[in-house]
Amino acid sequence: MPGAVTSKAEVTNISRSGFWLLLHAQELFVPFRQFPWFKKASVEQLLDVRLPGAGHLYWPALDIDLAVESIENPKRFPLISKARPNSSVKRTRTSSVTSVPKRSARRLR
């Protein structure tokens, strides 16, 4: 039978640019620029961090799961998609996106 998990994660400091997280005697900085979903969180929400498993962090009040590796190596986990826009998608006046196949569009005229 496995023993109780004794290690924990703890937010040790919060600034305008991010917060520091103590994890296994290692302090990691979590910048709001790279992790924007934390920027508008309350202090109480940031402090309520759990370590449900090795390498996994969870903020229940924010419903945010993070791999510790994404904090240690943020360049491996880019937030910006490098996908190209779909050329068959047409924008309408209401700026909603409508998919119009090229063949069908000719028949409608």
Provide a descriptive summary of the structure in words.
With 109 residues, the protein is α+β, with helices and mostly antiparallel strands. The chain has a domain at 9-76: NE0471 N-terminal domain-like, CATH 3.30.2020.40. 16% of the residues lie in helices and 33% in strands. The protein contains 3 helices and 8 strands. The protein has a 3-stranded antiparallel sheet. The radius of gyration is 21 Å and the shape is globular.
Q: Mind sketching the topology for me?
A:
Layout: E1 9-14, E2 18-23, E3 26-31, H1 43-47, E4 50-53, E5 56-59, E6 64-67, H2 68-72, E7 89-91, E8 97-99, H3 102-108
Antiparallel strand pairs: 1-2, 2-3, 4-5, 5-6, 7-8
Number of helices: 3
Estimated structural class: alpha+beta
Average pLDDT works out at 79
Name the CATH class of one domain: Alpha Beta
Proportion of residues in β-strands = 25-35%
| Number of strand elements | 8
Give the H and E element order: EEEHEEEHEEH
Keywords:
109 residues, alpha+beta, NE0471 N-terminal domain-like, three-stranded antiparallel β-sheet, 3 helices, 16% helix, 33% strand
Quick overview of this protein structure:
With 109 residues, the protein is α+β, with helices and mostly antiparallel strands.
